[in-house]
Design brief:
By secondary structure, the protein is mainly α. Helix 3 packs across helix 15 (about 285-310). It is built from 16 helices and five strands. The longest helix has 29 residues, at about 310-340. The structure holds tryptophan. The site of tryptophan has 14 residues, from strand 1 and helix 8. Tryptophan binds next to strand 1 and helix 8.
Length: about 350
């Protein structure tokens, strides 16, 4: 079977370290390993509009921001098709046909949708488009016959719902669509990075993110004011590394090479942790190291960002070319879908 990788992001803000460890790093790794037939990464603007329909400018502006984030971390348009969701209108048509295969109550039971509805305080006024987005996401996936979907664990219910739709379609209309599988990071710390304030998740609305485009001073300020172990008051006190976001970030980001380069009195993170837990290691020292590690990662990303910011036309060309290629593929799937449903009247 062909290996087709597909994943996307909503253009609602810049990408941050949570995206980096949870997904972007892995995408670049997959790209470099090259063990796939096709790889698609796309900007889900239709989906972003489902809860930002009153704010199209925000969505429009962030398309460029997210693509530049992609290119800056090393996604390579010669290896990966990068496209904009709404430039592939076939996705909407597929969504329409899949809508018949899903009940309202099934959508309302989707755990991710459920918690988003609560969070957005829709009450009894849930926009149909919003509730429908898991179906639209199924169109995104199936239009490209994608079977490997690298996502964070909050997206597992979406992939499950997509699998159900595929099975239902295939059983009614005959074997047509490919059942996708989620790929989540092996490392638990990478699946959900906490915020700099210690809250469960880095999230733009909570203002607790370190963005890939943050400059050195901003990163320094954010790291030096990070939440740590509130009971670790004096350097001599034994500290907790487990619920401590500074150590969680190090777990997700620091390599033994980083220790060699910036903190060579310790061989690795285990040694640093042991010292902190025993007592005698101050937060400032650990935070300085974390800052060095993050800077080591972000410096080359910032350089690439600068290049693309100075060459915006190139960025648009990449998007345009990717969208044309994606549309061709989606049109082919749509043709198969319509044939399976016997609504290909003039053939
Ligand atoms: N729902 C995803 C998010 O919020 C974005 C997305 C849309 C997506 N369509 C997709 C991810 C298809 C993977 C596959 O980040």
């Amino acid at each position: 079977m062909k290996k087709i990788i597909l994943t996307g992001d909503r253009p609602t803000g810049n990408l941050h370290l949570g995206h980096y460890v949870g997904s972007l790093k892995n995408r670049v790794k997959l790209q470099e390993e090259g063990n796939y037939d096709e790889m698609y990464v796309f900007i889900a603007d239709i989906q972003a509009l489902t809860d930002n329909f009153k704010n199209p400018k925000k969505v429009r502006d962030n398309i460029l921001e997210v693509v530049i984030d992609y290119l800056s971390v090393g996604l390579d348009p010669s290896k990966v098709t990068i496209f904009i969701q709404s430039m592939v209108p076939e996705l909407c048509e597929l969504t329409m046909y899949y809508m018949n295969l899903v009940t309202l109550s099934r959508l309302e039971r989707n755990p991710t949708v459920k918690s988003e509805i609560k969070q957005k305080e829709f009450g009894n006024s849930i926009p149909v488009g919003f509730l429908n987005y898991p179906i639209s996401q199924t169109a995104d996936i199936t239009a490209f016959n994608a079977n490997i979907i690298p996502v964070g664990d909050d997206q597992l219910p979406m992939i499950e719902q997509a699998r159900e739709i595929v099975r239902s379609f295939n059983s009614i209309y005959g074997e047509t669509l490919v059942e996708p599988e989620a790929m989540i990071p092996d490392s638990k710390v990478c699946r959900r990075l906490p915020g700099t304030d210690g809250k469960a998740k880095m999230s733009k609305s909570l203002g607790n993110c370190i963005y890939l485009k943050d400059d050195s001073d901003t990163v320094k300020k954010k790291v030096m004011s990070m939440y740590t172990d509130p009971n670790h008051l004096k350097v001599e006190d034994p500290g907790n590394t487990k619920d401590n976001p500074v150590f969680i970030y190090l777990e997700a980001l620091a390599t033994d090479e980083h220790f060699k380069k910036y903190l060579n009195e310790y061989k690795n993170l285990n040694e640093l942790k042991a010292h902190y837990e025993k007592g005698g290691l101050g937060d400032v020292k650990v935070k300085r190291f974390l800052y060095d590690v993050i800077e080591d990662i972000l410096t080359p990303i910032r350089e690439k960002r600068k290049y693309y910011e100075d060459n915006i036309k190139l960025v648009y060309d990449i998007l345009k070319e990717g969208s044309i290629k994606a549309e061709k593929e989606a049109a082919n799937t749509l043709k198969n879908v319509k044939r399976a449903m016997s609504i290909d009247y003039f053939n």
